[in-house]
């Protein structure tokens, strides 16, 4: 059996963690969590002075009712043995349950390990990237019926309509995150989330009713770290009858992305959101890897 030493994570491990993140196809934001005051604890797994795994847990102000957890294991080593040692060390800590983590669907070894240790899948997330120039010639004419198309920029100065939008965004987000509830926050806090620094106000589209006093559906658009790409944000509708309006908004956003010289539009589509799934069923995104979110209560 391989000799594995489990130690508390130290900042000197950072360079090796960077390499581990890369080989595990994880995001670099995980490094910032290891330096965050929200970090609860982190452990490193070593074999002959080489870092072969890391596990850490942290809290989120936005979703405060669970503990976030991430476990990375060098895929060229025994996943079950390393992950087992790290998980045992983590579970000796006292933290709030449920515990939640995410993995790529292609990490079948770690997925099997989690399932054997009491974790269950609560959500799957598709993360496709669409080349917009390939789409505009094929899109049908958009028929919005009696509804009027507005941008977020159009309604920002209409306090009543803006408040209705924020209330709807809050309602939809809460409905689609029941397994991991969001924090209780003021409308001003939700307003700040809607009007995030990277939101594109003239590319975030909203359908309103004929009297221009009710929100029917919305789809937000954001800047990306990639200068060739824009990102779809939150979407939703006032009820199921109007859910078919959301793909129409996204088609408008495909045209916006193309007309403004961007090459790609990408998004994250959770299976727990009927609104996101409506977009995925109606817009021909290319095949993509799946991110699986698991919880243990």
From TrEMBL:
Transmembrane domains' residue ranges: none
Entry GO MF terms: acyltransferase activity, transferring groups other than amino-acyl groups
InterPro entries membership: Acyl_CoA_acyltransferase, GNAT_dom
Domain N-acetyltransferase: from-to ranges: 4-140
Name of the protein this chain belongs to: N-acetyltransferase domain-containing protein
Protein species of origin: Virgibacillus profundi
């Amino acid at each position: 059996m391989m000799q594995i030493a489990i130690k508390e994570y130290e900042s000197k491990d950072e360079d090796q963690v960077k390499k581990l993140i890369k080989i595990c196809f994880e995001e670099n934001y995980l490094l910032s969590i290891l330096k965050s005051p929200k970090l609860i604890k982190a452990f490193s797994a070593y074999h002959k002075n080489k870092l072969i795994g890391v596990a850490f847990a942290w809290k989120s102000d936005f979703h405060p009712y669970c503990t976030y957890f991430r476990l990375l294991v060098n895929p060229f080593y025994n996943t079950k043995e390393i992950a087992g040692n790290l998980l045992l060390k983590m579970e000796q800590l006292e933290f709030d349950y449920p515990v939640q983590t995410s993995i790529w669907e292609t990490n079948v070894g770690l997925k099997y390990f989690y399932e054997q240790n009491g974790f269950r899948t609560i959500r799957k997330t598709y993360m496709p990237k669409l080349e917009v120039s390939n789409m505009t010639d094929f899109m049908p004419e958009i028929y919005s019926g009696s509804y009027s198309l507005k941008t977020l920029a159009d309604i920002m100065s209409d306090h009543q309509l803006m408040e209705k939008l924020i209330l709807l965004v809050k309602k939809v987000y809460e409905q689609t995150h029941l397994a991991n509830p969001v924090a209780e926050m003021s409308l001003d806090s939700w307003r700040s989330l809607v009007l995030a620094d990277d939101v594109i106000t003239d590319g975030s589209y909203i359908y309103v009713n004929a009297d221009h006093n009710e929100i029917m559906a919305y789809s937000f658009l954001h800047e990306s770290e990639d200068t060739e790409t824009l990102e779809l944000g939150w979407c939703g509708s006032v009820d199921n009858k109007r859910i078919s309006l959301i793909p129409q908004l996204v088609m408008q956003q495909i045209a916006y992305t193309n007309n403004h010289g961007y090459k790609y539009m990408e998004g994250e589509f959770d299976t727990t959101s009927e609104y996101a799934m409506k977009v995925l069923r109606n817009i021909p995104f290319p095949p993509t890897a799946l991110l699986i979110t698991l919880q243990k209560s």
